[in-house]
Write a structure and sequence with these properties.
With about 90 residues, the protein is mainly α. About 90% of the residues lie in helices and about 0% in strands.
């Protein structure tokens, strides 16, 4: 019985990680939609005018750039803290 549990653990962990990533992605899309809608949509109408369309494209691109920058910075910080912690342990 223990062997079956050991086999299931990596699969369960992978499933949880995938679901967590999906949830983070959905939250990001929701946040991006809210920010860009507030910024770009002055008067909702039946059609998107060219000014609003350009605004949405720019807003989404900047949001993605910013999110990527933050993720990269966090990864660098975690790596440097990890190597700092390892040095402190020595």
């Amino acid at each position: 019985m223990d062997n079956q549990g050991a086999k299931a653990d990596p699969q369960l962990q992978q499933f949880i990680e995938v679901e967590s990533q999906k949830q983070r992605f959905q939250q990001l899309v929701h946040q991006m939609t809210e920010v860009c809608w507030e910024k770009c949509m002055d008067k909702p109408g039946p059609k998107l005018d060219s000014r609003a369309e350009v605004c949405f494209v720019n807003c989404v691109e900047r949001f993605i750039d910013t999110s990527q920058f933050i993720l990269n910075r966090l990864e660098q910080t975690q790596r440097s803290k990890g190597s700092f912690s390892e040095t402190m342990d020595d």
